[in-house]
């Protein structure tokens, strides 16, 4: 069916829901590259007005990618919880927005709602929201996950310690890990992006991480972010904690990554069988990013933000410990400047949280984007207010292996200090026992005799 809205004596018509969603999206370079964005600000407003009048039930009847063509579309429909959806089933998208911003939509209510709303519903309502709306609603969401510690509690901010090295040198990686630990980072995960996907190199790094964790009794989890097939290959010979995979919002995108839902299910069950968690069994770690479907020429005419939110349906199926939107990593072809990166990050965090996911954000940009560290400082502060579950901790904020700019150990300290946030409870207690932080979260002086320094 078509959708239309008359604006100042001009009627704008949108041939289907997919087109309407694309035209209603705040401008970004990726949608322009794909030829999907509105031709003018006026058309965008008309699309948003038309979208506001669409009943939420429509998204269960008109799919942006047909059910028979895409396994993610089938997943979304087949796992939809009608009972959870009932309290909002009579809303239009505009009414849903107003309700989300009301006091009626409190934390418990939003947690109960999550299984009943589809990615397209959430993407649609986000397109009608200002940045402050995205922050206000996300702040009310609480998504808590557990493996060896507890992540996502209100009042806490976790950090992925990212000690990448351009040659996977264990000594260089270990030095970065110790540096991060001494600044209070690492409670989300100590996660290495390997320079190669060699099974043997992955095993070497995993054994090093596990030995470090056990030696110092660190209540956290480790991960080498290898392809899921590599993780399956080495599970019987390496200490695999979290199972990692990049995912997208269309079946074709995931095919380009060499995965499908059945492969992820196999990896999830294999990871569970290892029984390595101590306080919980959330063990999947997914990464996403707006533009991945377009870069793979696999978007099917769907705007990049809606594609991104559809990827969250894949993540939700496997009860992950962590979901990370690497928001500015793909480049300015998809998110051109700091303003677009900030908007996309707030959208991703809001949409993921509303769908019941433990969202973190890699607050980042590539060196050829029209963005700088001041933009990232702004975004870090906004996400901290919005209650993001975790961020990245990269030595000096400069990833020397992936060649992009992210957030540093010092940035995480800043966010925790100015917003009154703490690490995960178990990790916070460990930091105090190690003499690294005090009860108020302040860093303590660490002399050159501290036993962690002897590791390197």
Automatic annotation (TrEMBL):
Its cofactor is adenosylcob(III)alamin. GO terms for biological process: amino acid metabolic process; ethanolamine catabolic process. Catalyzes the deamination of various vicinal amino-alcohols to oxo compounds. Allows this organism to utilize ethanolamine as the sole source of nitrogen and carbon in the presence of vitamin B12. It catalyses: ethanolamine = acetaldehyde + NH4(+). GO terms for molecular function: cobalamin binding; ethanolamine ammonia-lyase activity. Substrate binds at residues 160-162, 193, 287, 362. This is Ethanolamine ammonia-lyase large subunit. It is found in: Bacterial microcompartment. Pfam families: EutB (PF06751). InterPro entries: Aldolase_TIM (IPR013785), EutB (IPR010628), EutB_dom_2_sf (IPR044939), EutB_N_sf (IPR044941). One of its GO terms (cellular component) is cytosol. Adenosylcob(III)alamin binds at residues 194, 245, 295, 401. The basic unit is a heterodimer which dimerizes to form tetramers. The heterotetramers trimerize; 6 large subunits form a core ring with 6 small subunits projecting outwards. It comes from the Bacteria. Its main location: other. Pathway: Amine and polyamine degradation; ethanolamine degradation. Keywords: Bacterial microcompartment, Cobalamin, Cobalt, Lyase. Belongs to the EutB family. It is an enzyme of class 4 (lyase). It comes from Chitinophaga silvisoli. Its EC number is 4.3.1.7. Binds between the large and small subunits. The gene is eutB.
